[in-house]
Design brief:
The complex is a heterodimer of chains A (142) and B (388). Chain A is mainly beta and 142 residues long. Helix content of chain A is 8%, strand content 39%. Chain A has a domain of 77 residues: OB fold (Dihydrolipoamide Acetyltransferase, E2P), CATH 2.40.50. By secondary structure, chain B is an alpha/beta fold. Chain B has two domains: 141 residues, Peroxisomal Thiolase, Chain A, domain 1 (3-Layer(aba) Sandwich), CATH 3.40.47; 225 residues, Peroxisomal Thiolase, Chain A, domain 1, CATH 3.40.47.10. In chain B, the strands form two sheets. In chain B, strands 3-2-4-7-1-8-12-11-9-10 form a ten-stranded mixed β-sheet, with helices on both faces. In chain B, strands 5-6 form a two-stranded antiparallel sheet. In chain B, a hairpin with a 1-residue loop joins β5 and β6. In chain B, α1 crosses α3, α4 packs across α14 and α7 packs across α11. The longest helix of chain B has 17 residues. The chains are: A mainly beta (142), B alpha/beta (388).
Chain lengths: 142, 388
C-alpha cells in the first residue's frame, strides 16, 4: 500500500474517531458523511467524536493462511469487536492466546504496529485489541 | 419489459488449466454457447463479460473488448462491456444482459464469465480475494476473506447451535455432486473426516471449507423469448432477475448470520416469478465457503434461520432431497473461477431444466434458482429460471 493511502486515515485509526448522526444519534465507524438512516437530513450534522476504545468480542478467527504482508505474524487472531458505543470494527487481538478468546470477552483498544512495507519501508500503526484485564506495561527505572 | 430466454450454454472444464490463457478459455466457452444456440456470431448484438480482477491476476484490463476481439467480432464493432462485482461479477453480467434484452435495446446477447487465477501464487490470490472486502477497514488489519467467513461460521454456531460437523457436511455433499459432473474441478467424493482434519485456513474453517482457486470460463446466449423459439425448441425462460446490495464491510451489519442482500434479492425475485421458495426444485448457491451455503439456503427461504446446518446434515439439500442444492458441485467442487462462477451457475440450471444433466439430473425439474454473492454479501444476485 502506498504511504499516502495509509496515512490519510491515520487520524481516524490512531484516535478511533467515529461519527454520530446529529439527527438520529446513530454511530458510524469509520466516520461517514451521510447517515444510512437519515440520509439527506443528516448532511452537515455528522459529529466526529472519539470512541472509548472498549468493547467485547463479537466473533473471531485464528488466521493461518495470510497474504505476504502478514506472513511473519501468522497464526494471528482477527476479531470483530462490538464497541460499547454500539458500532463494530475489525481488528487483531493481542496479548492473549487463541484458546482463551471467547465471544463476549471484554477488550480494549491499544495502538500497535499493523504492518510494514518491506524491511526498509514505512511502518504502519493502528489499533489492535487486548483483554481488558491486562494492565499497561509498567516502566521500570534504569 | 420483454420476456427473456436462455438459448445456448457453454462451459470449459474448471481447474488448474495451465495450458489455457484467459482469452482462450473465454472464447471456448463463448463459441460453445453460440454453437449450442445454433446462432452465428454476426447475430449477436452485444457482449457482457463478468470478471473480477484480470488486472491483478493476469495484468490485463479491458477484457470485454479482448473477448469480443478474439471471438472474431472486432469488425462487427458490437458493444462489449465488462461487469465487476467481486464474486457476483458473473451473475451481474447475466443481469445486465437480461436488462438489455428486456428493455428492447438488444435482441441477442452473449454473457461470458471468466477468471484466470492460477497465474499467481496462493498468497497473492488470497490478497486479491481479500480486496472484495473493505480494503481500508478490514483487509488492512489482516482480516482475510476466509477469516471473515470463519467469523460468520463461529457466530452462526454461537447463535443457533450449528455444529462444526453440520458445516463440514456442505463440503461432503458438494464433492458428492461434483463427482457426477465431468466439468468439475474435483470429481472425488470425500468424507466428513477429510473436511474436519484438513489444514486450518482460518479457524474454525479449514482447507476443505474453502472453494479452490480455479481457472475457467462459462457463457450463455440470451434472446428475447418471442424470437427464442426460432432457435430452440424448448428455450429456458428467465422468470426473474434481482439484485441487492449491503454494507461493504461485514462489521457494519447488525447481524452477520444473515445476508440481507440475499434476502432482498430473493424476495424481489420470487415476487417477479410469482412463485415461492417451496416451488424451487434445484438451486445453485454461492458456497465460496461451506458456511456461505448454510446462510444462502436460510436467506433464500428454503429453511428457517438457524436450521440450515441441520437441513444439510439431514440430507435435505442433496440430490433427491427437498431442494437439490449445488448439483454441479458448487463453488467448492465444481471450482470457483470468480468471474465465471455466476455464469456457470446459470449453465447448470439450464442443463437441469433441459433434462441434460446426466447422472446428477434432478427429476422433473421445472423451477431453478441461482444465487451469486459478491464480497461478504455486499452484492447478491438472484435469478430464477423455468421451463418455458
Amino acid at each position: 500500500m502506498t504511504t499516502a493511502r495509509f496515512w490519510r486515515d491515520n487520524a481516524t485509526r490512531y484516535n478511533l474517531m467515529a461519527t454520530r448522526c446529529g439527527s438520529c444519534g446513530k454511530v458510524s465507524f469509520p466516520p461517514r458523511h451521510v447517515c444510512p438512516i437519515c440520509h439527506r437530513r443528516s448532511l452537515g450534522k455528522m459529529e466526529m467524536f472519539r470512541l472509548s476504545g472498549k468493547g467485547e468480542v463479537y466473533s473471531f478467527s485464528l488466521v493461518h493462511d495470510a497474504p505476504a504482508a502478514f506472513e511473519l505474524q501468522k497464526p494471528y487472531i482477527v476479531a470483530m469487536i462490538k464497541m460499547d458505543e454500539g458500532v463494530m470494527m475489525t481488528a487483531q487481538l493481542s496479548d492473549c492466546e487463541y484458546p482463551e478468546v471467547k465471544i463476549g470477552m471484554r477488550v480494549k483498544a491499544t495502538l500497535r504496529k499493523i504492518g510494514e512495507e518491506g524491511t526498509g519501508g514505512v511502518i504502519h500503526y493502528g489499533y489492535k485489541f487486548m483483554p481488558e484485564r491486562i494492565a499497561p506495561p509498567v516502566e521500570t527505572p534504569l | 419489459m420483454r420476456e427473456v430466454a436462455v438459448i445456448g450454454i457453454g462451459i470449459t472444464k474448471f481447474g488448474e488449466l495451465w495450458d489455457s490463457s484467459f482469452r482462450e478459455m473465454g472464447i471456448m466457452a463463448g463459441l460453445a454457447a453460440l454453437a449450442d444456440a445454433k446462432v452465428s456470431s454476426e447475430e449477436v448484438d452485444a457482449i457482457y463479460v463478468g470478471n473480477m480482477s484480470a488486472g491483478r491476476y493476469i495484468e490485463q484490463e479491458h477484457v470485454a473488448a479482448l473477448i469480443a476481439d478474439y471471438s472474431g467480432l472486432a469488425r462487427d464493432h458490437i458493444p462489449a462491456t465488462r461487469v465487476e462485482a467481486a464474486g457476483a461479477s458473473g451473475g451481474l453480467a447475466m443481469r445486465q444482459a437480461y436488462l438489455a434484452i428486456a428493455s428492447g435495446m438488444h435482441d441477442m446477447v452473449v454473457v461470458g464469465g471468466a477468471e484466470k487465477m492460477t497465474d499467481v501464487g496462493d498468497s497473492e490470490s488470497n490478497a486479491i480475494q481479500s480486496s472484495a472486502a473493505d480494503q481500508q477497514w478490514e483487509s488492512v488489519f489482516g482480516a482475510t476473506f476466509p477469516s471473515l467467513h470463519a467469523m460468520i461460521a463461529r457466530r452462526h454456531m454461537f447463535q443457533y447451535g450449528t455444529t462444526r460437523e453440520q458445516i463440514a457436511q456442505v463440503a461432503v455433499k458438494n464433492h458428492l455432486h461434483g463427482s457426477l459432473n465431468p466439468n468439475a474441478q474435483f470429481q472425488r467424493e470425500i468424507d466428513l473426516k477429510t473436511v474436519l482434519r484438513s489444514p486450518p485456513v482460518a479457524e474454525p474453517l479449514g482447507l476443505f471449507d474453502c472453494a479452490p482457486n480455479s481457472d475457467g470460463a462459462a457463457a450463455v446466449v440470451l434472446c428475447s423469448l418471442d424470437k427464442a423459439r426460432r432457435y430452440a425448441e424448448a428455450p429456458i425462460k428467465i422468470l426473474a432477475s434481482a439484485q441487492a446490495s449491503d454494507t461493504l464491510a461485514l462489521h457494519s451489519r447488525a447481524d452477520i448470520c444473515t445476508f440481507e442482500a440475499t434476502r432482498f434479492a430473493a424476495r424481489k425475485a420470487f415476487k417477479q416469478a410469482n412463485i415461492g421458495p417451496q416451488d424451487i426444485h434445484l438451486a445453485e448457491v454461492h458456497d465460496n465457503f461451506t458456511i456461505s451455503e448454510i446462510l444462502a439456503i436460510e436467506d433464500l427461504g428454503f429453511f428457517t434461520k438457524g436450521q440450515g446446518g441441520k437441513a444439510v446434515e439431514d440430507g435435505l439439500t442433496k440430490l433427491g432431497g427437498q431442494v437439490a442444492v449445488n448439483t454441479s458441485g458448487g463453488l467448492k467442487a465444481r471450482g470457483d473461477p470468480i468471474g465465471a462462477t455466476g455464469v456457470a451457475q446459470i449453465v447448470e440450471l439450464v442443463q437441469q431444466l433441459r433434462g441434460q444433466a446426466g447422472k446428477r439430473q434432478v427429476q422433473g425439474a421445472r423451477y431453478a434458482l441461482a444465487q451469486n454473492v459478491g464480497g461478504t454479501g455486499a452484492t447478491a444476485i438472484v435469478h430464477i429460471l423455468g421451463v418455458a
